[in-house]
Amino acid sequence: MAEDKRLTTASGMPVDDDQNTVTAGPRGPALMQDVHLMEKLAHFNRERIPERVVHAKGAGAHGVFECTADMSKYTRAKFLSKAGKKTEVFVRFSTVGGEKGSADAARDPRGFAVKFYTEEGNYDMTGNNTPVFFIRDPLKFPDFIHTQKRDPATNAPNPDMFWDFLSLTPESIHQVTILFSDRGTPKSYRHMNGHSSHTFKWYNAKGEYCWVKYHFKTGQGIQNLTREEATRMAGENPDHATRDLHDAIERRQYPAWRVCVQIMPPQAAKTYRWNIFDITKVWPHADYPLIEIGRMVLNRNPANYFAEVEQSAFSPGNFVPGIASSPDKMLQARIVSYHDAHLYRLGPNYQLLPINAPRACKAGNYQRDGYMRLDDNGGGGPNYWPNSMGGPAPDPAVAEPPIDLEGHAARHPQELTDDDFFQAGELYRRVMTDTDREHLVGNIVAHLGNAQKRIQLRQTALFFKADADYGRRVAAGLGLDVKEVQRLAAMSQAERVKATSA
Ligand code: NDP
Hints:
Elements: H1 35-45, E1 58-67, E2 86-95, E3 110-118, E4 121-128, H2 141-148, H3 159-167, H4 173-179, E5 194-195, E6 200-203, E7 209-218, H5 227-236, H6 240-250, E8 256-264, H7 266-271, E9 291-300, H8 305-310, E10 323-324, H9 329-346, H10 419-431, H11 434-448, H12 453-466, H13 468-478, H14 482-489, H15 493-499
Antiparallel strand pairs: 1-2, 1-9, 2-3, 3-4, 5-7, 6-7, 6-10, 7-8, 8-9
Helix pairs in contact: 2-3, 3-12, 4-10, 10-12, 11-13, 12-13, 12-14
The structure holds NADPH dihydro-nicotinamide-adenine-dinucleotide phosphate (NDP).
């Protein structure tokens, strides 16, 4: 038999029989000396790694980003320096709240994470299909996710938990309005946009900086499932978006996105109507129009799901020279938290895995050892800095320009104002069509109707604050007294909570 076709143990020993365990006699007990059986069972028991607490169910594909405009006036990032320049990417789409086996059609934001394998290191854009988020302080994140998952007693989703938290967190109103529109159930991963949501800093070779937000506009057009279609899809084809992405690429119908940014000069940020580091707000296009910077095409399916998709690890902290963080505290927490999650999930050397390692350049540092070190571990080179042995050295030329920060170190509450309801209202009254509004109200009523009445009243008052018609229609759908909703809407959040407490 050809040696390269022989079945072997993990240590390479050829296996003579993979159907019959070594036993004492034909009916006898198995013998522990059957190392092939022992190894096979032991490895099987260890096949699962911890699933992501959020974004557990996902699908991914390889592709190319082509820069279509020279952005060097704004950023020194080389992959954005010349029209026509191509950079390999890997993209992972996901739902957020469900487990690894949950239905792709769930009402949920969709993760939209892009790894650009640039010649200056890997740059990760870890976005969503929505331009905003539910909360703007990371201290609230674990609580928020708990409420969207399972009840600790029943292990089933609980509409009271879900809406209690959201109605006690009114800054969520904008994202809740998007989530309960049909955009909360995209037809597939190909038919949705991606947004960085956060504001980032771009800086050029002269050390000048600006603030940016990214938007990936689908070339396939926005298409969504209605509530009824999503419910049916979840039962009939729970992996529909996973299959759709794979099958489209196999058919050579390569999905593409137009990649755009909004750019704001730092002086403008200081006096802008909204805090540009508040992730519950967008920058209206009329103020900051989209500027196209490139095109992203996905053209290759992973050959192995676990190796490439499950082990892919994105972090908003993976920057390249020319792109940096902003003072957004949600972003700051994600920079720490994503890396930390991968250390737990994949181990200290997760960035050496082929899907995560730089491709267009070599990483050079003094990190050594740790579980599953699968390269040469720095060989015989120096393992400390500074050294005079020719080891990798810091390059001061890539330093990011400083920004001014000042203020008292304290827990500063971000007061809720009527402005926090404005953009949700704009979306409802100006951007949505009649059909969008009708579906939005129907989707909310079908879900919120399962919560306690006092929670329904508190949440509907928030819809009313975004737009009176919005609040009235949800109230009518739920059979609530509109006058009571209006009365609650006129209160401060503290009064409203008191009036609707158990
Ligand atoms: P514009 O009228 O200039 O743009 C509206 C945006 O909303 C477009 O990007 C559109 O693009 C998107 N959109 C259309 N229908 C829906 C929908 N049912 N749900 C969510 N988004 C939709 O408005 P402004 O920039 O002044 O923003 C107004 C509101 O539009 C915002 O408050 C926000 O809710 C929403 N929006 C704004 C974005 C921004 O970055 N300015 C981005 C996305 C939404 P597309 O269909 O390609 O998504």
